[in-house]
Description:
By secondary structure, this protein is α/β, with parallel strands linked by helices. Helix content is about 40%, strand content about 15%. The strands form three sheets. Strands 2-9-8-7-6-3-4-5 form an eight-stranded mixed β-sheet, sandwiched between helices. A four-stranded antiparallel β-sheet has the order 10-11-14-13. 4'-deoxy-4'-aminopyridoxal-5'-phosphate binds next to helix 4.
Amino acid sequence: MQFASRLDNVETSAIRELFKLLGTPGIISFAGGFPDSAMFDVEGLKEASSKALAEEAGGALQYGATEGYEPLRTQLSAFMKTKGVEVEASGLIVTTGSQQALDLLGKTLISPGDKVIVEGPTFLATIQCFRLYGAQLISAPVDADGVRTDELEKLIAEHKPKFVYLIPTFGNPSGAMLSLERRRKVLEMAVRHQTLIVEDDPYGDLYFDQPPPPSIMSLTREVPGSRELVAHCGSLSKVLSPGLRIGWMIGPAELLAKATMCKQFSDAHTSTFAQATAAQYLKSGRMPATLAHVREVYAERARAMGEALQRELGDAITFTQPGGGLFFWARLTGAGGKVADANVLAKRAIEKLVAFVPGAPFFAEKPDVATLRLSFATANVEKIREGIARLGEAL
Ligand code: PMP
């Protein structure tokens, strides 16, 4: 079949093959990016969906506005306020997961050949989505404090990108957190170069010991002229349920209007039933307890994984203990000055019945084959210890 030329820029994910093996009996998987389904607040969501049907079936089951179901926009505006972002209900649009917000950004902003700066490494689906629209991706280096702002500014000056895409808080896959100082610098350079910054923030609520610095969007209050230069994507996927497919985007009115127009042609609107359920859930006041619960469980798993990696892999690996999110990002140190290949280890690991994702596909440019991503979200502490011990054997 003759497919559209835009598909020429995109390969199917190199890690899909690996995912096929995850059904192997007895395997312990650190590969996926899923939250743990045992942590879904089923009772709360049952109540919320029943209420949505009992009180507002007309809205919850009917076609709805493309921008989003009004009661949910109101609840999300209040939710963002608790996180230091002042936004009217009309200042955000609801999207079908934050993945759709990324797609709408690609559709509205990227013409073939346009340059977009992303972090190296960054979220794989973003790389593929932006490439589908013909973007030329430029990779900015990341260290333990998130994207290197000195390098980022040089790249902005050199390439004049259409926008810069960042996951500043517990990035996927890097787990890194952009420091407060660097967040301010990002906003200042956005103003200096008049460059749009996209802040993708599905993990900001998943912190362990202490809350992350304020989001880039909330810091726009401090930097004159910056608010119109930031788009912020949020999601209920990692804290409540990815199956609900509820995300949102805040940004310049002009951008939201174009994104809404494109969304109309794509899915008309996000499921009104899911939106009404999410609105009822947020209104029920259960969210703070849910957040506290998921933070506690993931924090314990992250601690267990850090300890196990130290114990079982020692000098063979370097990593930073994440302060939140779902991932460890690690690098094989290699032996005798040779770079170790995480792909080779991944194959051996599968034989030992443990899975992780090699890091190379997460780089839009200059892949580092020694890197790997390990998720601590779905295995319990005992499985994490066992899985990392198997990884040690594989190594
Ligand atoms: N952005 C990042 C950085 C992610 O890791 C994910 C999910 N893995 C998404 C966006 C998309 O999430 P969702 O569409 O479920 O909101």
